[in-house]
Structures are given as C-alpha cells and as structure tokens.
C-alpha cells in the first residue's frame, strides 16, 4: 500500500505566499493570516474557495456581515469607488482580499467593535 499525500494545505499556503508577495504584504502578515486559517476551519475553507474561484464563498457571517461585505468595505476605505486615478498597491484587488480575510478574523474576536466601525463609517484609520 502506498502513502497518501494530501497537498491541499501546501497549495493553499503557496497561494497565500504568492498573493502576499503580489500585494506587498510581508512574511509576518502571511504567517499571521496562515495561523488564523489553521485555527479556524471555516475561514480556511473560505480562503481555499477564493483560491479556486477568485470569489468569496460567503458562507461565514458575523453579525450579518460576510467576506464580500468586508471586501466592499475595504474598497470604500481606499476610495476605489471614487476612482481618484491613483491605484497604489494598498488598494489593488489582492491587497483588499487579504485585508478582508485579516479583518474578518479580527471581527470574529470582537464583532461589536467591527460592526460599529462598519456602520458608523468612522474610525477607519484605526483598521
């Protein structure tokens, strides 16, 4: 009988590394986000779905907010909606995706604070 090898986590980690490199995120950010994925299977599943489909699964919800909601909130925070003609690395799609995953992990720990920030439109500079 042969050895069974499941490479899904390795592929997810490699994808995260490529995404972080493209988005200008450092190794510490990548490691912190990877640790979040390893400690939360639902968040990991959401990330794997994104890796495979380049869209969000949106099965997870916190106080009614999904990953797509946090992504759109990221867009608003970086003024993409207004199309100012400047698109630095901080507001490219992959950076916004990574930030949405990161913020969603944090939102799970403190949902009330994040709901307040999202709904008030204030305090965005603290995120």
Descriptive report:
There is one protein chain. This protein is mostly helical. It is 63% helix and 0% strand. The longest helix has 17 residues, at 93-109. It starts with 7 loop residues before the first helix and ends in a 7-residue tail after the last helix. Mean pLDDT is 86; it is low at 123-127.
Task: Write a concise synopsis of the structure shown.
With 127 residues, the protein is an all-alpha fold. The chain has six helices and no strands.
Q: What's the layout of helices and strands?
A:
Blueprint: H1 8-23, H2 27-39, H3 41-53, H4 67-77, H5 93-109, H6 111-120
Helix pairs in contact: 1-2, 1-5, 2-3, 4-5, 5-6
Low-confidence stretches: 123-127
Order of helices and strands: HHHHHH
Oligomer: single chain
N-to-C CA distance = 51 Å
Task: Please state the overall shape, judged from the principal axes of the Cα atoms.
Answer: globular
Structural class: mainly alpha
Task: Please tag this protein with its features.
disordered C terminus; mainly alpha; 6 helices
